[in-house]
Amino acid sequence: MARIVVVGAGVGGLATAARLAATGHQVTVFEAADTVGGKLGRYAHDTPAGSFHFDTGPSLLTLPEVFHDLFEATGAKLDEYLDLVPLDPIVRHVFPGGGPALDSCADPVEFAARIGAAFGDRAAADWQRLWRRAARVWNASERDILRRTVDSPRDLASLAWRVGDLAAIAPGRTLRGLGRRHLSDPRLRMLLDRYATYTGADPRRAPAALVAVPYAELAFGGWYLRGGLGTLADALLTRCLDLGVVVQTGARVTRIDATGGRVHGVRLAGVTAPVPADVVVANVDAITVYRDLLPRPRRLAALTDRSLAGFVLLLGVSGSTGLAHHNVFFPRDYDAEFDAVFGDPGRGVRARPAVDPTVFVTVADDPMARPAGHEAWFVLVNAARQGIAAGAVDWRRPGLADAYADRILEVLAERGVDVRDRLLFREVRTPADLDAATGAPGGSIYGTAGGLLRPANRGPAHGLWLVGGSSHPGGGLPMVTLSAQIVADEIGPAW
């Protein structure tokens, strides 16, 4: 039985702790915040009309089998803890210039029919051809990458890729390029581009292999958890406690002791004595681990381009607007948005708030989320990370956040959804707020931007492991949960 310390009680940390405790290890989790869940945040706002409840992080659960596997591996059933609600549409896409919206769904035949009804038979045929390619990419990724360690480019190069897999993955091609090659309708290209932002990346630079992301969502479905996605954190905490894991909140790890090439434990803020450990699992951003927590700062071996961040409005809205659970309102010029969010430091172009951004609106049809006769809106736009460098924006600048919130509400009004005279309240969350609340450098949602190679799960000292969205296999709830499975399997059982 090993003494294991998990640093951080996000989904990755709690999932790892539960798996390790179920196999006989002695596990302690230290979380700097007062609550567990990490980026799976929650916010409640009381009004005379009643209470509004928001998920302030992920709003969609995909690949449910990953979570069924997690709970079964720890001796439980997912349905005993969580109420999964399938969504149809998964996302309602509203395109510029008017015309029909497009509702995505988990039935590929039905979705192709919806595309045909909205955009014509050629568009439907284009999508079906891309879908077959996406299936090959997904199958190769799921088989060879998502459930195993990938420590270096050499590991990727050594995979026994099948010829068909390589042709589908198209190394060297971008997601944007893939869309232009396969999709004749510009609206479908726009839909595909959006999935690069799921991994924090610019579709003009993101690898074509990210076509697996829409496949995973549309093949296995999108789900809501009744009571909010934050209930996943509650369920994982309960599993951990039932398995004997010690979870301490308000306990900030300031250093990982790793002299002599192996871990010996951790040190906590305000505590003199070190906490001994045979194994340390870090569920904090990989850059933070390498730069701040090790005895000597180290460079990451993998590419570490920072992902985009998000600017969020939490709105209490009176009445009903008839929106779907998830809605995306696209801009007229998608490239202008990416130019603003990412900037181009090489050409001296600074990042800035996008004037006409894509607006993502989540409206949960859940009585637990809002009073009767009202709606709780989570509004998200892509944003540059917090900072003063050319590729960032100083969101702490006085007046900027409120002015940009006004602009987003104006954009929604321009796109046919004006709720400015129906607001009971609005709360603003900037990338600077996410940085402060979760320790995500600059408020980057996914840590490192999308790609096949991310910081490895195996740390630079023996007994040190990394889980979470900034490490392999990437961001998003299912990928974070798979990182926990990879690490727990590598550590192995206590017996």
UniProtKB/TrEMBL annotation:
Kindly state which keywords UniProt assigns to this record, in alphabetical order.
Carotenoid biosynthesis, Oxidoreductase
PANTHER family per record: PHYTOENE DESATURASE (PTHR43734:SF1)
- Family, per the entry? Belongs to the carotenoid/retinoid oxidoreductase family.
| Location of the Amine oxidase domain | 12-290
Q: Which GO terms describe its molecular function?
A: oxidoreductase activity
Pathway assigned to this chain's UniProt record: Carotenoid biosynthesis
UniProt lists the gene as: crtI
Q: Which Gene3D superfamilies match?
A: FAD/NAD(P)-binding domain
Tell me what organism the protein belongs to.
Micromonospora orduensis
A Pfam family matched in the record: Amino_oxidase
What is any one GO biological process for this UniProt entry? carotenoid biosynthetic process
Q: What is this protein called?
A: Phytoene desaturase
